[in-house]
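Before drawing any conclusions, I looked closely at one protein, both as residues and as discrete backbone shape codes, quoted below without any editing:
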Amino acid sequence: MAGTNTANKRLDQRRVAPEGLFRQPRLYLVGEAPGAEEAEQGRPFVGPAGCALRKLLGQAGIDLRQLRLANAIPFRPIEHTEKSALRNRAPTIEEINHYGAAVLTDIRRSKPRVVVALGSTAARLFSASRSIRASRKAKLQFDGRPLQITFHPAYVRRFGGANGDAWRKMVADLRRAWKVSAMYSNGARSRQHSPEGSKAV
């Protein structure tokens, strides 16, 4: 990540690098972009969405020590309000294509068993063009590894929270990815798991 540079004034200059188990994590979770809390602490998923994500992971029975967390881009996208206050914005496709390359490199180096894209921005990083609801059940791959696309924790938190349908579906998606990761060793496909119809993304 140290090689990534930015002169984009619409990005917070403070870098938020991936965090967690580097060598062969069971799941590599990729979110959208850092928010204010993430930029301040230099860590991914430490704000409200991060708190929701940890609750979702807990409900899915996932060991947090076996994860690596990152954002689709390592910088917080910002814009000014009419009163000159800073607020978050969604990253542009150009920013995802440019700055997301470092995240893809980190994924390849860490060799996770399963990659999980959280939300539409992360899905775009892997060139997934369909809606999240359509992509959730698709058998996808990135660099020869299973790719699970699901909702972003901020979305399920906003629309219904722990009592909502999206929350329950996201828990199911995370549980499914965790189960698939048990069928892989060092990123290699086991004989027990050989899905047909998978496509590279």
Summary: The longest helix spans residues 165-181. The longest strand covers residues 145-150.
